[in-house]
Queue: 4 jobs
Job 1
Amino acid sequence: MSIRSEDANAFLDRLTGLFAAHDGKLEVEGRVSNAGHMLQTAANAESAGAEPCLIAAALLHDIGHWLRAGTPDAQCVDHRHESVGAAFLKAHFDTDVTQPIALHVAAKRYLCTREPEYFANLSPGSVASLSLQGGPMSEAEAAAFEADSAHVHAVALRRWDEYGKMSGLQVPGFEYYRPLLRGLMRA
């Protein structure tokens, strides 16, 4: 086994540990753990026929919340979990995985501007965090977001994210996605 392979496996073990540590803690609107939420989001992406890189992005999109443990209450401060998570993952994954993660909060702001019905259907927690994240985009911000070719994948991730908050939903666990992640990691 090469050093790079060992490093990749060690990183996957670290991710496995993070998911295990957060499984069962009702962190997303008191309905589902953040681990469960990310697993549901990945299952949504997979059932939509998404590319493996987008399934991985869906699976790991909120990992930045865990990396900011011990910081002030998330209800009062935006910790930019999307940037924290993407930065943490970029050493092991290409931008086709990390860029949708980095942009998924901007995608929520964008969708609230472009699709009023999207905002009307946001969960209470998403509405609360939206104001901390800057609220709906201005027209200029939305146009700039659309100019980024990665915005399409970020919007898809955001849609799967919003429907990944169901109490009691049974989806595959983290180990199911481990081979997919390993296949996407830099050699």
Job 2
Amino acid sequence: MSRIGKKPIELPKGVKVELKGQQVKVSGPLGSLDMDCHPCIKVTVDGSGNQIEVVNPQPDDRMSKQLHGTMRALLANMVTGVSKGFEQKMEIYGTGYSVKDQGGKLVFQVGYCHSVELPIPKGVKVKIDVPATRGNDVPAKFSLSSMDKCVLGQFAANIRRVRPPEPYKGKGIRYADEHIQRKMGKAFASGGA
């Protein structure tokens, strides 16, 4: 039995859940999300409509055990997404690096001979706080927000993959709360006869 899977999901005010077979639709103040649950897992809403329960009817089946906690976590993320939303802050370090929003695309100048364009997925909002870096100390900053945690996380990972932070000077694109383990550069011996 999954400890996470057994926990009921509390529904905040203004959030409604509709069940149609294995499809779950969650709607709230920020919009609505839907997901098809795996056939191994049953999702129920209690009579008062304040809680969602995820039930594993086959506790001995290995696949059901694995999906129990996963389905509960995905549903909890949907409930949080439609009520509060999710945000991911990102930073770009490196002299001359910049980011700008150009007609539904994020355009990065990150040390390549060309600019890198990434289309912004539907439902993701981008807010650029600082568009360009100033030296190696002041980073460019932007934030991504969405009600769908999966789409937001994947887009943030795709952005980071454009120029992952390198360990010597820390140049590149990183999450705002990410710590980069730094390495020492080459040590040159002093010249002596």
Job 3
Amino acid sequence: MTGPGVATERYFEDFAVGETVEIGRHRITADEIVGFAHQYDPQPFHTDPVKARDSIYNGLIASGWQTCAIVMRVMCDAYLLRAASMGSPGMEEIRWLKPVRPDDTLIVKRTIEEARPTSKADRGLVLTRWDVYNQRDEHVMMMRGYGLFGRRGADA
């Protein structure tokens, strides 16, 4: 949701089906990977560079959940915090396609797949696909999910 004093710039009507745009980038460090993993996903290939070398990944990798959290942050910075966002009823799909490694730069692209009004006149449902690439243009993650957005003129 938008906060007090924050101008709403994007409503349901502003999401055009088929639109694909890069919404942001984030460079991930080894310290970020290890810190997140110790708290939320303490598997050795996320927390211990020495043990990670002996894993099937041949080195430290980020938790897939951390990649999702980074994408969420990129979404907030790019548009959600200035949108008439009403939250999300859930994700449809998440795929971790390649490991994310220290010093990777994650590039997030958003594609609007569907936008339809709901049975409530003040909101619409938007199905979005987020594709995440690293600096080598390798597709590292894909996720699809719905967001609820207020309709223009309905926030009075």
Job 4
Amino acid sequence: MRVPDPHLWARPLQPEFAGDFFRLHDRSDCGGCWCMYWHFEGSNEDWGSADKAALRAAKEARIGAAGDTGMLLYEDQEPVGWCQFGPRERFPKLLALRRPPEGPPDLWCINCFLVVPGKRRQGYARVLLAVSLEHLQRLGVKEVEAYPNAGAHPDGEVWTGPLQLFRDAGFRELPGPSVVRKSI
């Protein structure tokens, strides 16, 4: 594994950085999701036919309202990665599909990673996770949950993160479908 470039830095997504968020997603292979999947209340069939412009507008509104919970990773001045997190109850589709075990009412979750093609499998997600966990700790978050993919998957299909990423960061596996937690 290549060590990430020493010119990496990160910042939480706020309205003034929305352009960087969209530029990152436009450069990737995520198909116009803009990290709205876990917020989307329709069926997966509805998701497949969702108006991409409407999804983008919905994300713009979320970001503009007060920022959106997530961390942008930069290499020099170029956004190269994204990690979405937030209070678990803000992601209705996640709760409906993943059905995670009960947790404390203030439980947060990490539910999406995006590293641009060409930068994957080089440690960028590890840096992004570490920075995100530090940020969550500063916000006063006590416990965080994630929903990793176990086994091998094509790069563009590991958007919840690979299991080993979370194991290496000290997350513990919970019984049931792929759910991990960590006290921070």
